[in-house]
Amino acid sequence: MFGMERQSVRPIALDLGHSVIRMLQLGVSPDEGLYVVDAQQTPVDPDLDAQAGKREEFVAESVRQMLERGRFVDRKIISALPNDCLKIRSLRLDPTQTGQIDEILRDEVAQRFGLNPDTDEIRYLIAGHAYQGDEIKNEVIFFGIDRPSLEQHLQMLEKASLQPMAIDAVPCALFRSFKSSYRRQEDQQLVSVFVEVGCRLTTVIIGRGQEISFIKQIPIAGDQINQDVAHRLGISLQEAIRLRSQLRTAEDTAFDHVTRQSMIDAMSQTVEDLAKEVSLCFRYYAVTFRGEKPQEAVFGGGEAHETALLNALRRHLGIEITIAQPFRGIDLTDSVLAQADATTLSEWAVAVGLGIRGFEPAIERVEKT
Fold first, then answer.
1. 112 in any annotated domain
2. Average pLDDT of the chain?
3. pLDDT at 83 over 90
């Protein structure tokens, strides 16, 4: 089990999003199926980021409160490093350099990251063969974080009285979650695209079978769309968030035509920009790996149900777009999620990916760190 003992209750998954903190614990039933032991979430005030140390204090206190009111077992935790703390870069190496990756980490990758190889943390996974003209290279994806950011994360977990079992990267957790339903033999060479549109970043992951081939973090996401709406309508950011939520779920008669059209117009440029960036990821993959064209893209995150964005992506990508179902095959019967709005469950993809880390060998192979 990759160093993690199989037991009836899994470690708690902690997803530290910018707008919501989520905690999820999965259990293993006698027939080896998964079920939700408990799931809790707490919204985060975006203004906390501007106050030194306040966010860390808030997270620690929120986690303690969720532990107290929830049914979580033990305090063992698997957490994900915040996306904006993690640096991700791809590098093409000659096949003869594959055995020298550790040296390249010190000499070239650390410099590109702006990290110190003696004190900071850098990990990698081999994405596969990439084409550069007529030459074949090895594409390697590197993950890096500076030591102070990592220590701050660990100290925050300690303040919350948690026992870290593993620390993961958001893209790896997302891929693990999204791929959990692709375990059949005929899916081993299937090219899949997974996109999480969060608050600050949109994460694009392209993989073949159970292996990650491509990761890109795009600095266009929900926050920018909210700011566009707030500016266009002359309202506060919180009011813009509320109106956008209503627009996604309300009937046509809930908004007057002028307000509805003004909101759509306000979002249009950012939505188009994001759709173009995602389409560029497709082109990069097609040129670099020359693999089979993906047949669909699976979307998760808080913006996964933004109609304007999904329509723009369908125009640019020309493939089917579906919404992630991270809890597919997981029993929700005795959890608070059993009564949850189905449209919000895709937001739990990172937490599910953390929760199943080490449980399924076919999924765990994506991490070669």
1. yes
2. 84
3. no
pTM for the structure as a whole: 0.87
Q: Which amino acid is at 49?
A: D
Domain presence at residue 148: no
* Long-range Cβ contact pairs of 232-237 (< 8 A, separation 24 or more): 232/262, 232/263, 232/265, 232/266, 233/259, 233/262, 233/263, 233/266, 237/46
Residue 274's nearest CA partner among 219, 230, 237 is: 219
110 in a structural domain? yes
Residue 3 backbone dihedrals phi, psi, to 5 degrees: 80, 5
Share of the chain above pLDDT 90, in %: 38
Q: Report the distance separating Cα 222 and Cα 313, nearest Å.
A: 15
The answer to whether 289 touches 213, Cβ cutoff 8 Å, is yes
For 95-110, how does the pLDDT look when each residue is reduced to its tens digit (9 = 90+)?
Answer: 877 678 888 877 777 8
Query: Who has greater pLDDT, 325 or 210?
Result: 325
Which residue range(s) make up the domain with 113? Answer: 88-143
Rounded average pLDDT over 183-194: 66
Average pLDDT over residues 190-215: 88
Rounded-to-integer distance, Cα 227 and Cα 102, Å: 43
Q: How many structural domains are present in the chain?
A: 1
The length of the chain is: 369
| Dist CA 162 CA 367 (whole Å) | 24
Contacting residues for 290 by C-beta, under 8 A, at least 6 apart: 131
Q: Is residue 105 part of a domain?
A: yes
